[in-house]
Amino acid sequence: MKGSYVILSLIFLVLGFLISYSFQLTREKAKGETLSPEQWDKEYQIRSQLITKEEINRDLQKELFEKQERVEEIEASLKEEKQVYYNLVEDVEKYRMYVGDVAVEGKGVQVTLEDASYVPDGENVNNYIVHESQIFSVINELYISGADAVSVNGQRLSRHSYIYCNGPVVTVDGNQFPAPFVISAIGDPNVMIPALNITGGVIDQLTYDHVVVAVEKKDKIVMEPLLNEQKDSAS
């Protein structure tokens, strides 16, 4: 029995120690988690500042989105204006090309007209040579089918150009050229060549008039700008 009391005493002693230690630990922990009034005020201020900053950030984010939308609208407007200006510049360049102010180059067509190599006895020679009306028919067909620029024997034509026949030579803007007459046109050859060769069209008519015609597709044709004196003489 005495041994039992000793064991029980030891058990109660250990249990008491554990209870005392647990109470002391809980007390210290509770004491450690308790905030002083100053600490509460400081934490409240920090939380208030954080909430205020979050509200400011939300407002700034909203303002940023609005400005981004405005920037997108301005960019779209500038894009439209840029396209308008681009179209205007493109039109100006086309007009300058048409009036001969700038040099032009590109693919196109070359049409060569020659007098007939044989004139039957007793026939009128004038019926076997190239006349200005036949040159005009080729030039007109080329313009109708989309030619951007046309020249005759290297003489670039303008809106004021004139062509007339004087015996065996043809005068273009004051410059005389003998046959053969080489008519060059810058444009889409896949459009101009079929237009020239259409049944009953220009080529058929020239052949019927005893004119020797040759049509060539050119990958590159270069035409220099018209000089001021050439424009003045043409006008």
UniProtKB/TrEMBL annotation:
InterPro entries: DUF881. Keywords: Coiled coil. Residues 57-84 form a coiled coil. It comes from the Bacteria. Transmembrane segments: none annotated. Belongs to the UPF0749 family. This is DUF881 domain-containing protein.
